[in-house]
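Fold this complex.
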Amino acid sequence: MLGKLFKYEFKNTAKVMLLIYGMFAAITLLGTFVLSWDSVQKEESAALNFMLTALIVFYILSVFALFIVTYVYMCLHFYKTMYSGQGYLTHTLPVKSSTLFHVKLATSMVWMVCSMALLILSIFLFVLSASHGEIFSSGLSAELHQVSLEFEQELGMSLGTFCVHAGFSVLLSCLSYLLWIFTSASVGQLFSQYKVVAAIVTGVVLYFVEQIASLIIMFTTGYTASMNETTVSITGINAVPAGSGADSVFPALLGNTYIWSILLCLVYYIVCRVIIQKHLNLE
Amino acid sequence: MSALIECKDLTKSYGKKTAIDHISLSIEGGHIIGLLGPNGSGKTTLIKMLNGLLTPTSGSLYFQENPIGAESKKHISYLPDHNYLNMNQRVSDIIAFFKDFYEDFDENRAYDMLEKLQINPRDRLKSMSKGTKEKVQLILVMSRRADLYVLDEPIAGVDPAARDYILDVILSNYEPEASILISTHLIADIENILDEVIFIQNGTIRLTASVDDIRANEGKSVDALFREVFKC
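Structure:
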């Protein structure tokens, strides 16, 4: 049953997602094609300069659109198939309600990760095109080594470790954002009337509660003070020796951010699952 | 013989409003049962709880001695009172979906019924009329070899000729050992096919009786008794 659920979940979402990816891929290819022109890179004319600027702006907008559309579509799909008319079909399938929830969450995460992978590939193609393939020249490894050393000094970790942490943080953020909306929708469906309005209000309330709770934690754990010190250290206003600034605070900051994000995901997950399992209300 | 459906002190409230009020009920299998009551009497709420779409506020509900869940959904074929399918899908895609998820789904039976009705399986639901969509939904539900068919207002909102057709589809396609629970307020149209009736009003059961007993003891049709019981 699990395989069938995944099959239909991907089948039902693939059409829209592949259309979005196709459009983004087309924009990327157009960009790489334009960037590969020597005259564009040298900005030989005002028209070409304008075209380059417009292209960059358009590309940045399309990156935002890629993520916003993916995220909004996943949230709408969840609501439509769980709590509106189609929810009647979803919840009368001979599978556990928790399985339905897990499949929808996992599928949404896969599409979010695919969007990220597409963005990384797109940026790579842009850089490759702009450098005419020289990115792979011998100088690259030396430059990467230099950057890695700077990361080590400033943040207390290598560039590779930083990239792994960044990837993990993004995944956690995606998960918490999805669960935030899924929870809001689940709470909203508990109401007899104005379910969508109730879901939106719940989302706003959860957001503020989350922000206030994170601020309280930052203040009570002395985090803000450490961060101020780090900012000063990084900007060079007040040089501090290695080990007393960002290089010690940053890994700790990451650790605490992980704990907070995981905790948040866990709370949203439990609330969502309990509502779906025990308080389904398809009036 | 164990009960097909058993409710014990079942209650469902929406805030201060009580839709189902401490109902205790036991329904045996192998019958066509009419769940009859005026609008807002709690018919749909009871049906939704039976299909796991609503959670009871208190009390318990069992199907074949099991609580409502994944297992009971394998044996109950449910027709809601509105469209619940993805309108962008083709009928053939939906049939494939049902075949994948319901072991008791008879694909040939579905295609036979579609052919008799001259509905093209390649058509998308969104391109169909309201009546045709309802027929497709009924075909999907009746193509399962389920133990219980739960039909919520299957003849409401359709013309009399279509009503006869729908009732014919129901009668000619359900499994002989299976049960059908039909919710409606159009008693006269379905009276002839019913074995038993449950009268429900304001979330409470007013009467459970066999149709033969009503005719013999009351000397009235179910429709006449309904009008008398629920007289405004």
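The beta strands of chain B are 5-14, 17-27, 32-36, 58-63, 66-67, 76-79, 148-152, 179-184, 196-201, 204-210.
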